Each structure stands twice: as structure tokens, then as C-alpha cells.
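Single-chain item
Fold in C-alpha cell form
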Amino acid sequence: MLIVLPPSETKRDGGEGAPLDFAALSHPGLTRARRQLVRRVRALARTPDEMMARLKLGPKLAFEVERNRALVTAPTMAAMDRYTGVLYEALDAPSLDPAARAFAAEHVRIHSALFGLLGAGDPIPAYRLSSSTRLDGDSLKATWSAAVSKEFAAHRGELVLDLRSESYVALGPIPPTTPSYFLRVVTTGADGVQRALNHFNKHGKGALVRAIAEHGEDFADIDALHTWARASGHRLSVAPNGELLLEV
């Protein structure tokens, strides 16, 4: 199975890994696009005011420009540790035991605007780029959509849980030939109506991924996932439109 996460705008600084090595990243079919985007982002970082405007950053976040300028020289750390924010705080990858981290490295993907699909254990530097950032040349959608979809197509025999936001889904739709479920976090109000969540949407996703990693089972299909979910207290169901609902 694959679990596909969105990235986070915020990232931990530093790292103890060697500088960026494209050969160390999962999905080598994306290497050419990665190299091109890194060059484009570094070039734009040479004009700090323009990069801040493209990234919609205020003065307090000027350090993000330097991160982008230093993409190929900065230290790296595992992607699952690099990203922060609500989802990644709930996942809390640094505190996972070795077996759970190994499971995450094999089965969790993070869809980065800069690197495309990453394995959770892939070593990456800190950077700033979002799905909506406008760079010179091709759009991020044009860069990633077909290439990332092709990577998903190679996993057509696996269960795929898509926990991305809609903006990242647009940067790499999962082909119909790959059995996938878009996950939405919901709650049921006093009126009995289910409603999607915002803040707790991210927390619920992170907590679910942590629980799956700690359990360590490569679920063959949605029925196997449901069997585990019922036994472990996670309320999962498939909606009429085919989405996977997590009720919190």
C-alpha cells in the first residue's frame, strides 16, 4: 500500500545529512524535473524581493529565500522529519520506533511542490515552494501532473490512500487504474449531519498515519484496512462518492 501525504509550508531547519543528492530520492523517474525545478528556484532566489513576492512572504520570512538559494549545499534530513505543521505534529515521525519508521519509509509518500513524490525517508533540505507558486517558465501543474501520475500508475496493484489537499491532487492525479481512496476527515454534529473539518482534518490524518505505521501492516485492500480500523477504534467508512471518510 501507499499513503500519500501533502507537504507542509513550514519545515525544520538544519539536518545532519549530506547535501541534496538526487540519486538518493525515491521515484528516479522524476529526477529530470527535480533538477530543473531546483535550478529555477535557485535562480529566482538571486532576486530576493521577487522571490518573496512570488511566495507571498512578509519580512519575517525572508530567511526562506536563503533556504531556496542554498538548496544544493544545505544539510538534509528525512522528509518525514523535515516537515512540520499540524499533520506532521500528529504523525510525530521523530518519535516513531525503528520498525514504524521503516514502514513509513517504504509505504508513505509526501507530494512536494519542489521534488514531486518523495519517500518519507528521503533526505531533503529545507525549502519554500507551494502548489500555487508561480515560477518563470512552465507551471508546477505542467511540470508534475503527468509525471507524478505515471509514478502512481506503476503502483496499480496496490491500495493507495490519498491524504493530499485538492491543490496537490491537481499536481498529480492518481489514474483510475490504481485503486485509490481520497480521505476526508469529518465529524457528525448534533443534527446528525456529517461535516468536513479544517484544523482537525490535518490532525486526524497525521494520527491515522502514525497508527498505521505503528501497526505495520501492508493492507492489501480496503476491506483489510477496515478490519484493522474497527478493531483499533478508527472510524473509517466509504462514502457513496467513493471517498474514504475518517470520523473524529
Summary: The two ends are 23 Å apart (CA to CA). The mean pLDDT is 95. The chain has ten helices and ten strands. The first strand starts at residue 2 and ends at 5.
